[in-house]
Design goal:
CATH architecture of the largest domain: 3-Layer(aba) Sandwich
Number of strands: 20
Number of helices: 19
Shape: globular
Strand order of the largest sheet: 5-6-7-3-8-9
Number of domains: 4
Structural class: alpha/beta
Helix content: 40-55%
Length: about 650
């Protein structure tokens, strides 16, 4: 029996249909990833499901007695409330008793003799009320949830970071043991460790869940079904996000073929109508109506399927050296942020900075760019650097300014790649309708503000991009377009992001925080770092063991030639060839996956299917072996 069903649902915002006679069913135990473009209506749908928003039409049914919890994108808490107060609110009516009892216990424990008798009477009365409604079990549940999420119940919520506020909101939702959990962008403000923690939390959650997120790695790890909100219609895809991508690619190819056939028919009808057939007048009227319908359908299709046109105004080429750090350190008081880091950044490098919130990624960036003076060591900057900076907090955007003023203050034109373009046309490339050009920034959603900031950033000629969390609130399609742009960008990129898939698809090397101000450089993105750190940790452990095995009276022996880190000629040649070999294998792997995603492939001979399956397995094994060998050689030469 389903937990919730939605039938013939309609919801519009102005003239835009967010839900257009669509349906949805949520069953017990499933974890649904809800995806769609920015502004498609995902948050509005979640609000309608939990009763915080209303449908224009349609039927919403929930199982009698269903316990449902909802966590909005930006959770709000009562002013002055403690973490314990906020979490206990998730229990509903009994939360007031729990809060009063908790505060009475704290007062009695403080030992204020003036109010001791009164507090003891209050405490006794609250104990009786809690016993009557099984409140002790619920109190224990709140305390267990605080411990599970590593939260201090006495801290005031307003003093917490964005990531910890999100944890409090999740604790508030989970403490009621809901049958259905609705989460709107739960990974926002969480660092990578927090996102991985949330993945495990959801996978162990016994109830059903529906999650809005654009984190593709998170979706793939958590989801048992993907639901896409596309042009007012909800489409369901069983399985993980990877399975959805394969199915969606096939579906888009089919849609493109159907559109091509419709365009061809439209062209034929346009030719016929221009000939002006006077005879068979009744038939002519019918064909004219058909032509009008084809034209309307094409206009609607163009409006529905608009795409962001990401282009970047490139500055003059910088010098080959962008920055070089030699034994650089930086501290704030007793806290070490950067300790003895040495690295060299060259033109065209795409650097990912990885680490938990507060580890000092922004400080390290400022040191590299020469905006902050080091306590020790030397920083050398290259020549002809033109820097464009993307700020995750969007402080560059004036909420009262119009979109046009943000892009081109005091002018109606944008100077872009040596040519002038009207600001309305330029905004249209980033999916902003002409009538919105005079709207204030404060009217935009989070995803739209990020798109506007990217539009402003890309209009500025630059050869060094500094992107601090550019992926927040962007939909998956826009993320993929931004990835493609950065992959082809000939300049240098510094990227701070907690989106693991984005890091893997863009960066060529990562600088990772390893605690206490230590930073280490790794080849590749997030997944490459995860693989390489195992090897690096093993090498470090072996080195430590070797040192500790030397006795106090022993003299360490001189390392043998075999222990030296320098690669032989043959090994160096192998290392140089491995990236090309891996790339070729991945191209073959993608082609084999494409054959499997084609339904007609399985209509052929079963022997051919088995042959392709065998080869795919072999290719995946070869990729794994090559990656392991690459990591081993990289670690040896480090």
């Amino acid at each position: 029996m389903p937990l919730l069903t939605l039938d013939r649902a309609c919801l519009a915002f102005g003239h835009v249909a967010l839900l257009d006679h669509t349906a949805l069913q949520i069953d017990a135990g499933e974890r649904i990833g809800l995806i769609g473009r920015n502004g498609s209506g995902k948050s509005s749908l979640l609000k309608a499901l939990c009763g915080k928003g209303a449908l224009d039409d349609g039927v919403l049914w929930t199982e009698p007695g269903l316990k449902l919890s909802y966590v909005p994108q930006e959770p709000e808490f009562a002013a002055g409330s403690s973490v314990f107060d906020a979490v206990s609110e998730g229990l509903g009516e009994v939360s007031r008793l729990l809060r009063d009892y908790h505060h009475a216990v704290v007062r009695v424990g403080a030992g204020d003799t003036a109010s001791m008798d009164t507090d003891m009477e209050i405490l006794h009365d609250l104990q009786e009320q809690l016993e009557a409604c099984d409140g002790w079990r619920l109190t224990q549940r709140v305390e267990q949830m605080l411990a599970r999420l590593n939260l201090d119940g006495e801290v005031e919520v307003t003093t917490l970071s964005g990531g910890n506020k999100k944890r409090v909101a999740l604790a508030q939702a989970l403490v009621a043991a809901p049958d259905l959990l609705l989460l709107d962008e739960p990974t926002n403000h969480l660092d990578v460790d927090g996102i991985v923690w949330l993945e495990e939390l959801l996978k162990n959650h016994t109830g059903a869940a529906m999650v809005i997120t654009h984190d593709r790695t998170f979706l793939d790890a958590v989801s048992t079904r993907i639901v896409e909100l596309d042009r007012g219609e909800l489409r369901s895809y069983p399985g993980s996000f990877f399975a959805y991508q394969e199915r969606k690619e096939f579906q888009l190819n089919e849609e493109a073929l159907a559109n091509a056939r419709a365009d061809k028919l439209l062209a034929q009808e346009e030719i016929w109508i221009r000939k002006g057939v006077e005879a068979r007048r009744t038939r002519a009227v019918g064909r004219i109506k058909r032509l009008e319908a084809l034209r309307s359908a094409r206009v609607a299709r163009r409006e529905q399927q608009g795409k962001v046109d990401f282009r970047l105004a490139r500055g003059d080429e910088s010098g080959k050296l962008v920055a070089e750090l030699e034994n650089v350190s930086k501290s704030f008081g007793e806290r070490k942020i950067v300790s003895h880091i040495s690295c060299r950044i060259q033109r065209g490098d795409k650097i990912g900075l990885i680490g938990p919130n507060g580890c000092g990624k922004t400080t390290l960036l400022r040191l590299i760019l020469g905006e902050l003076e080091a306590d020790a060591g030397e920083v050398r900057l290259g020549t002809k650097l033109e820097v464009a900076y993307f700020d995750q907090f969007r402080t560059q955007l004036d909420p009262e300014a119009t979109l046009a003023e943000v892009i081109s203050p005091g002018s109606e034109y944008v100077e872009f790649r040596g040519a002038r373009q009207h600001v309305i046309g330029y905004l249209g490339d980033f999916l902003f309708a002409p009538e919105r050009a005079r709207s204030p920034v404060k009217s935009l959603s989070g995803g739209e503000r990020n798109r506007l900031l990217l539009a402003r950033l890309f209009a500025k000629p630059a050869n060094l991009l500094v992107l601090d969390e550019p992926t927040n609130d962007l939909d998956i399609e826009t993320l993929e377009l931004l990835e493609a742009l950065l992959q082809d960008y000939p300049g240098t990129v510094f990227l701070v992001s907690h989106d693991r898939a984005f890091l893997d698809n863009v960066v060529t090397q990562s600088i990772v925080s390893e605690g206490q101000g230590r930073w280490r450089e790794y080849v590749g993105g997030y997944a490459d770092w995860v693989r390489q750190r195992v090897v690096v940790s093993a090498v470090a452990a072996n080195t430590t063991n070797a040192k500790s095995s030397v006795g106090a009276g022993d003299t360490p022996s001189k390392p043998s030639t075999a222990q030296k880190t320098k690669l032989s000629f043959k090994e160096q040649r192998e290392l140089d060839q491995l990236p090309e070999k891996i790339a070729a294998l991945e191209v073959e792997q993608k082609a084999l996956h494409a054959r499997f995603s084609d339904p007609s492939f399985f209509q052929g001979q079963s022997e051919a299917v088995r042959t392709v399956q065998t080869r795919l397995t072999a290719v995946e094994r070869e990729i794994e072996t090559a990656m392991s060998r690459w990591e081993a050689l990289e670690a040896k030469s480090a």
